Amino acid sequence: MNTMDEKISVLALGALAQTVRLRIYRAVVGVGPVGITPGALAAELAVLPSSLSLHIKELLYARLLTQERSGRHLIYRPSIDAMNELLAYLSAHCCQTVKCKVDAAARAK
Predict the structure, then answer these.
(1) What's this model's pTM, rounded to 2 decimal places?
(2) Which helix (H) or strand (E) holds 68?
(3) What 3-state class would DSSP assign to 66?
(4) Could you list the residue range(s) of the whole structural domain that residue 49 is in?
C-alpha cells in the first residue's frame, strides 16, 4: 500500500474480520519474511486447501499478504508495511481532543 485511505482500510479490516483469515494472517506474520507455503499453512491450521486458497485471495486482494513463486511452490509473506500503514491510519487522530499519554513524536510517525 502506498497511501492508506478509508477505502483501503475498510478492505484490510474486512479481510481480517473473518476467523479463518485472521488465523491465516497471524500464522503468516508468525513466520515473518521467511514465508510459508500453502501446504504448510493448511496443515498448521487444519484448513482444507481449497478453503485456504479462497481466504488467501482475500488477504492478497487487501494487500496484507504477498505471494512469490519459488520453483513449483508459492510462498506467502506478511506485508508488514501495509499493516503498519493501517495501524498508522487508524491511530492518526489519536487524542485530538484530550490529553493523551502517547507522545507527540510517536504520533507523528
Answers:
(1) 0.82
(2) strand 65-70
(3) strand
(4) 6-108
